[in-house]
């Protein structure tokens, strides 16, 4: 319930942080989250929050902030509560229907930029597009890029479409409800990019509750060993890439299942993330 006595911004921030500190598995973000949630409840920037510490909240604002804090105490991700997440310098709409874009996924954009000719028309398939963070970013970075965004979830595709509109690339991003390439017919691409589900079902209980309990299972789990999607995706990508076309796959870990499916490919290499872990596989179709 909202406090019976009107609060200032300073008081609301303090009380919000104290409440969030009560939950151990989100405690480390309590102060940050209190700031972000109050900004969202008030519709103001961090700078405005800091400039007006004695400003009093209205009853409606207090109620909105109380609701957000209560949801965060259920471990609902801050990105879902605010409805947004930054990716490659752009602000993306996110909902509980899509995986929250992670910083390590930006490695895909970095690697594609090493190969793409900005002046050439290129056809790119974003398989399992989710929020559209990868495909929409590539469309925004390269005016000549044409993106085919495929996802099994209609709700996720709706978010992709909204993000394409948000970033003014909707004329170059087409969405398809598709299990991998199944609905894409005979289309041939220059690049295939994907961040497929790669968490093993057996690892479910080890995940943080804000991931396990709130992000879509369809976007998280890749079968019992985590490699189920790759064993289907890699052969299908081969069929839909032109000779010399390239595949960019985010991975959770290396494995025999990956190696076995990449034997026919050339120029195969991995890219490590900032923690030094293999995070991306790049391969070329001969």
UniProtKB/TrEMBL annotation:
Record bears the keyword Endoplasmic reticulum: no
Gene3D superfamilies in alphabetical order: DNA helicase RuvA subunit, C-terminal domain, Vaccinia Virus protein VP39
One of the Pfam families matching this protein, by short name: PrmC_N
Domain Methyltransferase small span(s) in chain numbering: 123-203
Gene Ontology molecular-function annotations: nucleic acid binding; peptide chain release factor N(5)-glutamine methyltransferase activity
SUPFAM superfamilies: S-adenosyl-L-methionine-dependent methyltransferases (SSF53335)
Gene Ontology biological process terms, A to Z: methylation
Alphabetical UniProt keywords: Methyltransferase, S-adenosyl-L-methionine, Transferase
Annotated positions binding substrate: 195-198
The enzyme's E.C. designation: 2.1.1.297
PROSITE patterns: N6_MTASE
Entry annotated with the keyword Transferase: yes
Domain Release factor glutamine methyltransferase N-terminal: 11-83
Residues binding S-adenosyl-L-methionine: 128-132, 151, 195
Catalytic reaction equation(s): L-glutaminyl-[peptide chain release factor] + S-adenosyl-L-methionine = N(5)-methyl-L-glutaminyl-[peptide chain release factor] + S-adenosyl-L-homocysteine + H(+)
PANTHER family, sorted: HEMK METHYLTRANSFERASE, MTRF1L RELEASE FACTOR GLUTAMINE METHYLTRANSFERASE
Main function: Methylates the class 1 translation termination release factors RF1/PrfA and RF2/PrfB on the glutamine residue of the universally conserved GGQ motif.
HAMAP family named among the record's database cross-references: RF_methyltr_PrmC
Similarity section: Belongs to the protein N5-glutamine methyltransferase family. PrmC subfamily.
Name recorded for this polypeptide: Release factor glutamine methyltransferase
Lineage, highest ranks first: Bacteria, Pseudomonadati, Acidobacteriota, Terriglobia, Terriglobales
């Amino acid at each position: 319930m909202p406090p019976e006595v009107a609060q200032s911004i300073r008081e609301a921030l303090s009380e919000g942080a104290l409440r969030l500190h009560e939950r151990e598995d989100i405690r480390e973000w309590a102060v940050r989250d209190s700031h972000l949630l109050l900004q969202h409840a008030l519709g103001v920037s961090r700078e405005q929050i800091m400039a007006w510490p004695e400003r009093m909240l209205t009853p409606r604002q207090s109620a909105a902030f109380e609701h957000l804090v209560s949801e965060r105490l259920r471990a609902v991700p801050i990105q879902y509560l605010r409805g947004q997440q930054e990716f490659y310098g752009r602000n993306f709409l996110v909902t509980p229907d899509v995986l929250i874009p992670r910083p390590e996924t930006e490695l895909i954009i970095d690697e594609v930029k090493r190969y793409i000719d900005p002046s050439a028309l290129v056809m790119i398939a974003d398989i399992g597009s989710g929020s559209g963070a990868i495909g929409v970013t590539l469309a925004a970075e390269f005016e000549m890029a044409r993106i085919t965004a495929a996802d099994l979830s209609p709700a996720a595709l709706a978010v992709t479409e909204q993000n394409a509109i948000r970033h003014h690339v909707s004329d170059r991003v087409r969405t398809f409800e598709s299990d991998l390439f199944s609905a894409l017919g005979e289309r041939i691409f220059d690049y295939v990019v994907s961040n497929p589900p790669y968490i093993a079902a057996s690892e479910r209980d080890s995940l943080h509750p804000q991931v396990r309990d709130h992000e879509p299972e369809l976007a998280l789990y890749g079968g019992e060993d985590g490699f189920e999607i790759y064993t289907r995706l890699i052969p299908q990508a081969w069929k839909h890439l032109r000779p010399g076309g390239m595949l960019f796959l985010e991975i959770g870990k290396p494995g025999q299942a990956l190696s076995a499916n990449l034997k026919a490919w050339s120029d195969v290499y991995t890219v490590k993330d900032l923690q030094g872990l293999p995070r991306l596989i790049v391969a070329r179709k001969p």
